[in-house]
Amino acid sequence: MKTLFLLICLMANGLLMPVNAQQHMTDTPNLAMFGRGIYPGDDTTYLQLKNAGFNTIMLSSFYIHANGDVYSGDDHANPIIHNGKYTGSREWLQRVAALRQAPTAVTRIEILLEGRWYNQPPNTYDHIQDWYDSSKTVAGIVTGLGPNSTLYNICRIFKEEIGVDAVCIDDESVYNSTCIGALGEMIGQLGMRMTLCPFRKPAFWKDVICRSKPGLIDAIYLQCYDGGRNNKPGDWKKKLETDLPVYPIFLCRGAFSTCAAVHNSKTPADIKADMVSFKKDYPEMKGGAIWQLADVKSYINNNCAGKTPESGTAVSVVQYMSELKNSLQEGLE
């Protein structure tokens, strides 16, 4: 029995993962842009995203509320899912679908489920913890993870109507690996992958990986800013004892509506330097990510290149996205 459990853990960690499950373990760098600030967005922004060179677009951030509704962090008044149906912007669905239409660099679309921060009221992962067990009774919610459950229906809409390839887990408060492991199994049954977005508590994330079926989790996006400012992908890879790829996420200048280096935000030059350093310690590292498009726009709208030249030189959204993408890519060379 112990041998079987060890085998399962090794497979879940990617150490014995089938070759066809290793979606991110290729020679092509995974360059990701977190897309907060693009719901419902506009056609111009989505065209820019298609042409920017990022191959993974993370639709972020989305929150589950106590009544089972799902909201975009960009619109706190109108849910995208209500009473078990998609009620969000139809134009947004068209824009998301267009990301894949040639010519495009985008090959993968994920959706980020974000949880509460410090001192915030319960949301996403509090509710997942309360609802995943079908033996529990919650008013207005169909508990469990079966085809009729509230959580299943939310994830089904992610897959069938929004068309995402993976659900990204950004739990920063609850840390219940049992319910996340169970949720991941359901996500896999719906034909999606699951990715992880940690900044602390590696033991929790390691347990999530160990509880997950081989091939379900295929990427780890590591927050290297704010509370995760001292994180290094190579260190986390060792702590997680996994062969799954670990990609650093950088906070770009323009964050929190300022050109300054707040919360460990980085210039493109800073990002490239960190990527070079990270790759030296973790030679097999093959990607990185930028948080987030709303901050890219903030950088330009605040004329950061003019007001704070040390923050960078970009004077347009297209130029800034290109510089950020290049900082990730060139740091891998």
Topology of this structure?
Blueprint lengths: L1 H11 L17 E5 L8 H9 L4 E9 L5 E3 L8 E2 L2 E2 L3 H9 L9 E7 L9 H8 L18 H13 L3 E5 L6 H13 L3 E4 L5 H10 L5 E7 L9 H8 L5 E6 L16 H14 L5 E5 L1 H9 L2 H4 L9 H14 L3
Parallel strand pairs: 1-2, 1-11, 2-6, 6-7, 7-8, 8-9, 9-10, 10-11
Antiparallel strand pairs: 2-3, 4-5
Helix pairs in contact: 6-7, 9-12
Keywords: Signal
What can you see in these coordinates?
There is one protein chain. The chain is of the alpha/beta class. The chain has one domain: Alpha-Beta Barrel (TIM Barrel). Helix content is 37%, strand content 17%. It contains 12 helices and 11 strands. Helix 6 packs across helix 7 and helix 9 packs parallel to helix 12. The radius of gyration is 19 Å and the shape is globular.
Which fold name corresponds to the CATH topology?
TIM Barrel
Order of helices and strands: HEHEEEEHEHHEHEHEHEHEHHH
| Poorly predicted parts | 1-8, 10-23
CATH superfamily: Glycosidases
Per DSSP E runs of 2 or more residues, the count of β-strands stands at 11
**Rounded radius of gyration (Å):** 19 Å
What's the structural domain tally? Answer: 1
Main beta-sheet annotation:
8 strands, parallel, barrel
User: What CATH architecture label applies?
Assistant: Alpha-Beta Barrel
Strand order, biggest sheet?
A: 1-2-6-7-8-9-10-11
DSSP strand content: 15-25%
CATH class value: Alpha Beta
Helical content (DSSP H or I, runs of 4+):
25-40%
Mean pLDDT: 93
Class of secondary structure makeup: alpha/beta
Q: Give the distance, in angstroms, between the N- and C-terminal Cα atoms.
A: 44 Å
Shape: globular
**Number of separate helices:** 12
Keywords: Signal
